[in-house]
């Protein structure tokens, strides 16, 4: 895959649709080999490839750095968790898994309530959905949960006065990710993983026909 031809919008869509439940890459691989890119085109391709391949490692890195900044601010920790969840809900795989687990847990106590939490059925005409698929969480559109979690987290940030702290922590985390993704040489595993994701995308599009 030529990552140089991948636009930022395509990369964001791929990160939104990909399964984030995969375990992080080993530290021995994460800190294996670093080289300076020979051109801006090489840097552009390397940065996108590493950002996609090490996405779980980068997410954990952000959580750790932000968490260290909130050791003395418990309210800010709760605000950070809600903010992370509101962002994670934008990923289709995470939203579906979260909804399924919550519904399964509720079913053990109230099957009637769990039945109301099922996503609405999408009408199918001639073997294809009549409308664009909308991701639901616990029977409600995804944007409802994103809005609620984001609003509550914003209030908690304001109450705890920790917004400046999180901005500094995010700046440090993003700088670390920028440096790693820019100088980490993509290995064979990253390329094979890219080919596998491409095959899955093609197979998914074929199965929807």
From TrEMBL:
The chain crosses the membrane at residues 52-71, 77-98, 143-160, 166-183. One of its GO terms (cellular component) is endoplasmic reticulum. InterPro entries: Prenylated_rab_accept_PRA1. The keyword Lyase does not apply. It is found in: Endomembrane system; Membrane. One of its GO terms (biological process) is vesicle-mediated transport. This is PRA1 family protein. The lineage of its organism: Eukaryota, Viridiplantae, Streptophyta, Embryophyta, Tracheophyta.
């Amino acid at each position: 895959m030529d990552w140089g031809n991948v636009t930022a919008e395509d990369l964001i869509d791929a990160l939104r649709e990909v399964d984030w439940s995969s375990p992080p890459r080993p530290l021995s691989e994460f800190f294996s080999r670093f080289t300076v890119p020979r051109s801006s085109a090489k840097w552009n391709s390397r940065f996108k490839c590493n950002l996609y391949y090490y996405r779980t490692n980068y997410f954990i890195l952000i959580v750790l750095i932000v968490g260290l900044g909130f050791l003395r601010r418990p309210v800010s920790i709760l605000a950070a968790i809600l903010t992370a969840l509101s962002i994670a809900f934008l990923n289709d795989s995470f939203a579906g898994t979260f909804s399924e687990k919550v519904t399964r847990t509720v079913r053990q106590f109230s099957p009637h309530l769990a039945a109301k939490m099922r996503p609405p059925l999408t009408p199918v005409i001639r073997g294809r959905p009549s409308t664009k698929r909308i991701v639901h969480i616990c029977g409600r559109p995804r944007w409802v949960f994103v809005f609620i979690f984001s609003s509550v987290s914003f209030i908690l940030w304001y109450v705890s006065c920790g917004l400046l702290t999180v901005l500094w922590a995010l700046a440090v985390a993003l700088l670390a990710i920028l440096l790693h993704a820019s100088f980490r040489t993509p290995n064979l595993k990253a390329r094979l993983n890219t080919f596998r994701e491409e095959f899955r995308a093609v197979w998914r599009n074929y199965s929807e026909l």
